[in-house]
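hey
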């Protein structure tokens, strides 16, 4: 069997139709395995459309969803999947998940088994009423991923599921180094932040935390841009400035 000497990670993306509750699935070709992903809710100039999901449904499928809230505001949604090219099945990629109980502001943490390197993760809010909206999906430790959300103005307790993706070389003959770069943006009603990797790193995933207080500021984007990861959020109905933190996760063979 051939031995890997470099990582080949490719970006795949798809955009939904215009909808009040847009959703999109990104499927990667045979020979690729998803290691990270994200989404952008293209809410434009309306009242706002906000993320409710961006997560791996399996090794070859990434799913993203959003919704308007209180005020009609249809939007399109773009989903992004980063996938390693592994035609010889040299890499073992695992997806672990953990689901919270219903809560107005639920949080869940998913953890990898020892021996894996964290590459990315995601979140899914299982809302059923007025809506519960993503506020965080990010690497909170070396082997774990945290997801959080909140209802907004209207009570709607929901469960949230966090997903963490990890990788290891099956034969153990290729070792990986990992880096996580985080950058926090300015305090704004529509905050943004971008974290970028150095040239020696391959972007494999990323995350975002909207550092809200007050009425709340909610995620609208967590996605790759070249060797960088960008996060964005917005307040909804009521002014509620916040900062946002973007996380870029990089790998390299050592």
């Amino acid at each position: 069997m051939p031995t890997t000497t470099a990582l080949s990670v490719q970006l795949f993306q798809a955009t939904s139709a215009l909808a009040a509750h847009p959703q999109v699935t990104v499927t990667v070709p045979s020979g690729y395995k998803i290691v990270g992903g994200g989404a952008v809710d293209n809410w434009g100039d309306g009242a706002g459309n906000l993320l409710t999901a961006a997560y791996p449904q399996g090794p070859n499928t990434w799913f993203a969803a959003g919704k308007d809230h209180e005020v009609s505001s249809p939007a399109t949604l773009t989903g992004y999947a980063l996938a390693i090219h592994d035609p010889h099945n040299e890499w073992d990629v695992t997806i672990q998940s953990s689901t919270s109980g219903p809560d107005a502001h639920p949080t869940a943490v998913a953890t990898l088994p020892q021996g894996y390197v964290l590459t990315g993760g995601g979140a899914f809010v299982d809302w059923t009423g007025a809506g519960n909206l993503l506020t965080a999906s990010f690497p909170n430790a070396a082997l774990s991923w945290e997801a959080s959300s909140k209802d907004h103005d209207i009570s709607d307790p929901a469960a949230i599921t966090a997903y963490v993706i990890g990788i290891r070389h099956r034969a153990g003959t290729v070792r990986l180094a990992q880096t996580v770069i985080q950058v926090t943006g300015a305090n704004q009603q529509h905050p943004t932040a971008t974290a970028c990797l150095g040239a020696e790193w391959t972007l494999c995933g990323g995350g975002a935390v909207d550092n809200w207080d007050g009425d709340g500021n909610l995620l609208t984007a967590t996605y790759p841009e070249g060797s960088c990861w960008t996060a964005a959020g917005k307040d909804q109905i009521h002014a509620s400035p916040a900062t946002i933190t973007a996380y870029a996760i990089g790998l390299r063979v050592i």
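Residues 69 and 200 are 42 Å apart (CA to CA). The mean pLDDT is 96.
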